């Protein structure tokens, strides 16, 4: 297997609200898709939004779940200023600031927000691990 994540699909409570958050609030480019699902193109992968109950049914698992889901989604940027800007943009779009950006033990700078469904996003600058283009 060649390691790669093609798509991350989030089970959301209110598809319309989540689409607005990711499309208008964060500016992610939305792809054409059926009305019951939304896809956004990322750099080499996709983000999908699908009804929480429908996604649980598709996977054959219970829709019930509470607390920390055991993962975060990370977006790495090329500077501390870019981290601060994206966190501000996310909060303005309706996210909840979970942890303000700050210098961290691994030598970078990061903070966390949660989207309208509580999914945690880490926004980080890691000077030792930057491999992408300048944002």
Automatic annotation (TrEMBL):
Gene3D superfamilies reported in the protein's UniProt record: 2,3-Dihydroxybiphenyl 1,2-Dioxygenase, domain 1
Keyword Cell wall biogenesis/degradation found: no
EC numbers for this chain: 4.4.1.5
Listed InterPro entries: Glyas_Bleomycin-R_OHBP_Dase (IPR029068), Glyas_Fos-R_dOase_dom (IPR004360), VOC_core (IPR037523)
Matching SUPFAM superfamilies: Glyoxalase/Bleomycin resistance protein/Dihydroxybiphenyl dioxygenase (SSF54593)
Domain VOC: 4-126
Pfam families per UniProt: Glyoxalase (PF00903)
Ranges annotated as spanning the membrane: none
UniProt entry keywords in alphabetical sequence: Lyase
The UniProt record lists the keyword Lyase: yes
Annotated GO MF terms: lactoylglutathione lyase activity
PANTHER family reported in the protein's UniProt record: BLR2520 PROTEIN
Protein's recorded name: Lactoylglutathione lyase
């Amino acid at each position: 297997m060649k390691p790669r994540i093609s798509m991350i699909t989030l089970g959301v409570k209110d598809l319309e609200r989540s689409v607005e958050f990711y499309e208008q609030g964060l500016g992610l480019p939305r792809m054409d898709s059926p009305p019951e699902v939304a896809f956004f193109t990322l750099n080499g992968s996709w983000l999908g939004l699908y009804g929480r109950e429908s996604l649980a049914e598709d996977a054959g698992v219970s829709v019930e779940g509470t607390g920390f889901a055991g993962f975060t989604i990370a977006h790495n940027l090329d500077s501390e200023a870019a981290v601060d800007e994206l966190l501000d943009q996310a909060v303005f779009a309706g996210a909840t600031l979970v942890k303000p950006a700050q210098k961290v033990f691994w030598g970078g700078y990061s903070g966390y927000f949660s989207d309208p469904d509580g999914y945690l996003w880490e926004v980080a600058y890691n000077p030792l691990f930057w491999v992408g283009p300048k944002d």
